[in-house]
Amino acid sequence: MNAVVYYSNTGQSRAVAAWLAERLGFPLLELASSAETSFESLVLVFPVHCQGIPDAVRRFLKKVRADALTAVATYGRMCPGNALYALGRRYGCRLVAAAYVPTKHAYLEESESFSDFERLEPLVEKTRRPDALPVSLPRLYRNVFAGVFPDWRSRMAGRIVRGPACTACGVCTAVCPNGAMADGIPDRKCIRCLRCVRSCPDRALTFRPGLLLRLYLRKKPVDRILIYT
Ligand SMILES: Cc1cc2nc3c(=O)[nH]c(=O)nc-3n(C[C@H](O)[C@H](O)[C@H](O)COP(=O)(O)O)c2cc1C
Question: Looking at domain 150-216, which CATH architecture does it have?
Fold first, then answer.
């Protein structure tokens, strides 16, 4: 089958995936609920986390097979890192097109969502071609500390705080992609992806960024869309 599969915690990658699915006429599937592991043409859309590939996406890539893969990594205008280069080298799919797309940062209320979808048209064209040749990606800059002590770095990033409006309804526990949440209280597996915060029906959860993260987010935003066909 053909499909657009997305992993998205705050909706940015989902919006890009939905546009691509509509243009291509492919079904739109959420990674967590997709039991399918074999595709003819697969378009995979996910956010850059710590300048790399989120664990949930790595786990999916390990079991999936696709004759042709188009990969799109959304990033929060800080640094796209090297996620797509790593994906092209490590996993057994034929990468035919790829893109880094600047979007709203999960931790920055004031940053803007991506809206220039027409710029993604070359991806659509290449994905549609049955004889599409593989694409080779350049190795981009990735900070040497980006993958170091990921759990410690997540904890340093900030805290998820449960407010009095929490009714222990269990939504946050159910939606957490890392099984890290129990009725509003995250454990050490929490990566601060903020899916729980966005999904809480009572708006009982808030994210309080720590000092290091606040300083990092002051960096001048990078607004580059990179497309490889
Ligand atoms: C845990 C985490 C790590 C992130 N790391 C980066 C990063 O290294 N560089 C960057 O530009 N944006 C980074 N972001 C921002 C996301 O890539 C960006 O907000 C993305 O569009 C969110 O997509 P989603 O709404 O589909 O989850 C990070 C966000 C989270 C939650």
Answer: 2-Layer Sandwich (3.30)
